Amino acid sequence: MKTVIKTQRMILRPFTAEDADDIWPCMTTNLARYMRWERPASAEDFEKIWRKWPVQLAEESNCVFIARNNQDQSFIGLFGMHGFKTPSPRLGLWVREELHRQGLGPEGIGGIMNWCRKYYSPDYFIYPVAEENSPSRRLVEGLGGKPVDVEQDPKFTLIIYHIPA
């Protein structure tokens, strides 16, 4: 799958190995506090994770999109579409900390949702959010998401949202 998604400020495309060096320094402990994952301890540990992403893409099960600024190609964040060929793909994202509160999260998620709607016709999207993560809850609610369930993760309580397709 060769996909490029363009939004007002970003270009999103599937992750490649060449992107890893831009991502690793931005994976902070503070950023990971509301993520289901912990910050990898080293660039080598991160490599063990990202090596799986192209395989998952080739299997058409998951796609990790890298977001870059469409002006200078600087790294913005990662946007995930997990199970993109299923009736209910799961969304996730993180934007580098110094770019928070600029509307990049909704812009990128909106772009990949539109891509998925065009090519795969989902019934709805799933978006899990840590209960304490108010900015992400506002983001998903702004996209029309409604809470439908609660799950206990080892790190925190997750609110499971459904976003209409």
TrEMBL record:
Q: Looking at the keywords, is Transferase present?
A: yes
- Per its record, how is this protein called by name? RimJ/RimL family protein N-acetyltransferase
Top-level taxonomic group: Bacteria
Q: Where is the organism placed in the taxonomic lineage, from the top?
A: Bacteria, Pseudomonadati, Pseudomonadota, Alphaproteobacteria, Hyphomicrobiales
Domain named N-acetyltransferase is located at 10-165
Q: Which organism is it from?
A: Pseudochrobactrum asaccharolyticum
Per the UniProt record, one Pfam family is Acetyltransf_3
- MF-aspect GO terms: acyltransferase activity, transferring groups other than amino-acyl groups
Which keywords does UniProt give here? Transferase
Keyword Transferase assigned to the entry: answer is yes
